[in-house]
Design goal:
- By secondary structure, the protein is mostly helical.
- It has one domain (2-138, 179-299).
- 75% of the residues lie in helices and 2% in strands.
- The chain has helices spanning 2-31, 37-64, 71-77, 92-105, 109-134, 141-164, 185-214, 222-241, 251-264, 268-299, and strands spanning 167-168, 171-175.
- Helix 2 (37-64) crosses helix 5 (109-134) and helix 5 (109-134) runs antiparallel to helix 6.
- The protein is globular, with a radius of gyration of 20 Å.
- The N and C termini lie far apart (41 Å).
Length: 300
Amino acid sequence: MKQTARVLGFILGGGILISQAVKGISYLLASKLVPSFGWLLFSLTLGIIAIAVQILCWTMIMRDLGASISLRQAMTGYVLNFLPRYIPGSVWGYFSRAEWLKKHYSIDYSVSHLGSIIEILSGLFSSLISVLLFVPQGISQRERIITGTGLFLLLVLLWIFLKKTSVIPSLRKISNPFFGFSIRLNVWLFSTLLLTLNWLIYGFIVYGTVKSVADRQVTFSTLEWVQYSGLFSFSWLIGFLSWFFPAGLGPRDWLLAQGLFFLKSIPYGMAYLIAVLTRFLGILSEIVWVAFNTWMYRKG
């Protein structure tokens, strides 16, 4: 049954992505657009950097939990051993990474899994911050500052709850599985901040992809940039929560296209093309890292 669900999720997600690719390519052919290679290369370079930031964040979390792994060691195998996340279910990449850490660095599974949970929580919260701060239009700078401050306090309260509360309030029979949360507050805050800044990098990636197919129609502004960041983080968030689809394949790309159409008034065909190109550039960034990982392994 689980195997059937995984295959079905991959087929459905792939079908959605292929459908968007067909619409995007049709638009490209009909409009006789020639994507700018320079802007695509710009986005690809930023995609490689964004993965490096993610590795840095995860390494910082793992080291604070007591794992003896250096940044160089993390960069050697993080992406390669995380590839099974493309299997429907969302968890297989984390299990694969835990096996790698146990085999090569004798890091206990419990530490690896806790590190993954903290990484996920930081990612989800940073995505929420990005969505609430960057997507809304027509709000003042003061309102954004108030929202940001509230989210910061909520992040601190979440850490206190996870660390200090042994049972979940109003549900006293249910123990808090994170009681005694062993990560320090400064690392918890900084990792979330680092991932929030990473969404801004992804905003530049989307912007570069937009520019590659609509150069004359797009001018740069800080507002445009942060809104692209918010749109991408929102599509990633929903895609991540759609565990049935591997790496959010399909729903994430569809949502990004819808956001580009409704919020940025980009024609549907072009929006689909941008979403598919963004996904392709993300995969290509990972391929670059996998090639680097393979080279590092052979080097010893």
